[in-house]
Description:
There is one protein chain. The chain is mainly α. The chain has one domain (13-446). Helices cover 83% and strands 0% of the residues. The chain contains 17 helices and no strands. The chain has helices at residues 3-6, 13-45, 48-84, 88-115, 117-123, 131-143, 145-160, 164-188, 192-216, 233-267, 272-310, 313-340, 343-346, 353-366, 373-385, 389-415, 418-448. Helix 2 (13-45) packs antiparallel against helix 11 (272-310), helix 3 packs parallel to helix 6 and helix 3 packs parallel to helix 7 (145-160). The longest helix is centred in the middle third of the chain and has 39 residues, at 272-310. The chain is globular and about 60 Å long. It holds the Pfam family MatE. This is Multidrug export protein MepA. GO terms for molecular function: antiporter activity; xenobiotic transmembrane transporter activity. It is found in: Cell inner membrane. InterPro entries: MATE_fam, MATE_MepA-like, MATE_MepA_subfamily, MdtK-like.
Amino acid sequence: MTQQTERLGTAPVGKLFVSMSxxxxxxxxxxxxxxxxxAIFVTRGVGPLAxxxxxxxxPVQMIVFAFAAVLGSGAASIVSRRLGAKDHEAARxxxxxxxxxxxxxxxxxxxxxxxxxxxxxxxxxxxxxLMPYSVDYLLPILLGSPIAIMGAVFGDLLRAEGKxxxxxxxxxxxxxxxxxxxPIFIFVLDMGVQGAAIATVIAQTAGLCLAVSFYLRxxxxxxxxxREWRIDWRALWxxxxxxxxxxxxxxxASFMIxxxxxxxxxxxxxxxxxxxxxxxxxxxxxxxVILPLIGMMIAFQTITGYNYGAGELSRVRTMVRxxxxxxxxxxxxxxxxxxxxxxxxxxxxTSDPELLQRAMQISRTVFLCFTLVGSTxxxxxxxxxxxxxxxxxxxxxARVYLFLIPAMLTLPRLIGIDGAWMAFPLxxxxxxxxxxxxxxxxxKALRSQPTPVx
Length: 454
């Protein structure tokens, strides 16, 4: 085990959390520039309707990454705890069987979605005006989806070892390259939204190549072996079970976006296209500001899982307090900005006055109770880090499936377009209350137990 991995159980918890969170937050923000940069160049370089077409496609991208999250986050939970327990062979075996399965599975997913591409777009609520943009963007993204899935799994395995700087290098490589290639493909080569998609795939390929090089050069605590490239189904099942909450979360975001776009298509009237485009901008900002929270949760989960596996429950309790407090501050700050000066973010994408005005109107409702979202993320991370897959599944899925989607299906039809935006704060409050109620018994047990309870 490397010294860097061992420090997960020895370094002061506060400093460790900061040292792992800040690079991850920075890396997640940089990685999020994939979508932000695409949106900026597409909106300004192609037009307001183009971002609507690209936004319609976003749920499909989310589903692809949802499958990557199942494998990557599930394997990371197991690998982190096995390394904490000093069981290197079990950690390597879990990592390698996950990588083998992800290679095969990613091509199956790519083929299935390609075969049903246009019917899927119709289900997502694409309008006649937006369809050409959606098809042009989605085709290259789908062809590159195996690369995206493999890169995501490798990144999760690196952070499970505590090698946040390697994970950050992957994200930086892809994001910087994407920012360089986007204007070339969109403006110089005049390829429009298809050029933006191709630039993204090339950038993801570079990140995957870098990840593979870390393992080939022996830079990791886990050493992959040539004879083990096979699927152990018994080892794979715990990976899938623990990763399922992340799939539910990613897929839920996809379903939520699709449900919202469908609602806007039905109640938006002649302004449906501009509402979909405006929501597309707000959705990009929402996904971007959630990324620091995800980075914080990744650091929280890695430290918590390692120390839970090592039986260091006092360190776990400290992590819980730090995680909840930090997430509250982060989400509260974001909420304050988006309620008072949303143009700080939204104005980056467009100078079109109608599009900007509608996006600002939407954001002031969507972010009304965003302060509470952080607690749900951290509680879900705790359940996953400690192996409580069922609780993690409930905590991660309730916001979208139990509260947001039902509200989105009913409120717009009852009170019009404003009902679509009111569904978001309603879901934020309800899911936070549920997550806290689920977590309280486990925290009481954590405070009273001298050893971990699986």
